[in-house]
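TetR/AcrR family transcriptional regulator C-terminal domain-containing protein structure dump, as promised
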Amino acid sequence: MSAKIVKEQVVGSALQLLDRLGMEGLTMRKVADTLNVQVPSLYWHFANKDALFEAVADTLLEQVATATVAGETWQEMFFRISCEVRQALLAHRDGARFLARTYPLSDNVARISSQMIASLKEAGADDRTAAWGTFSTLYYVIGFTIEEQAFAEKRPDRNQSPDIQSLMLRYPMAALAWQQILESDADEGFRFGLNMALQGLTHTLCASEK
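C-alpha cells r here:
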C-alpha cells in the first residue's frame, strides 16, 4: 500500500471520528485505534497532532470554490464562496469550531483566499483592503457557523428557567433579540449578516476611489 493512500486513510479516519465524537473526542490514539495501528505509525505521515488536525481542517474545504462563474462580480463571488464555506463546515460535526481551532495555512485555504483577494484587487482594492476584506468576510462565515452549530447542538428551550425569564424581563431589548433568533431561519440570518459585510466592503472600495 502506498504512503499516499495511507496518509489519506489517516485523514479520512480522523474526519470520521470528528463526525462521530466531535472535536474533543478526536485524538491521535483514537485515530490509531481506528486504523488498527500504533500511534507512532501516524508520525510517518504527520509530524505531530497539529499537523494531522491541519490536514483534516484543510479537507473540510476541498470542495469549496472549485468552479468559476463567468461574468461574476466580486460581490457575487464573495457571496457564493461564503455560502460554500458555510455548507462545507455544516457538513461535519464541529466543522467550524475545528477549522477555527486549527487555523491551517494550507492548500485549500490559500486557494480560496487567493481567488477572493484577486477579485477584490481587480475591482480596484489595494493590498490591505483586499486582504482584510477577504479574511474579515471569512471570519464572519466561520463565526456565524460556530454559533449555528453550537445552537443546533444545544438549542435552548422556549420555556426557560425562572432565572432566564427574570433576566429577559430586566432586559427587554435582549429578550426581543433572543425571540427573533429563536424564531428565525439560520439561512436568512446568515444572508443578512453576509450582505451587511459585503455592503460595508463595497462602501470601503467606493470611498477609496474618490
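The mean pLDDT is 89.
lmk if u need the other ones
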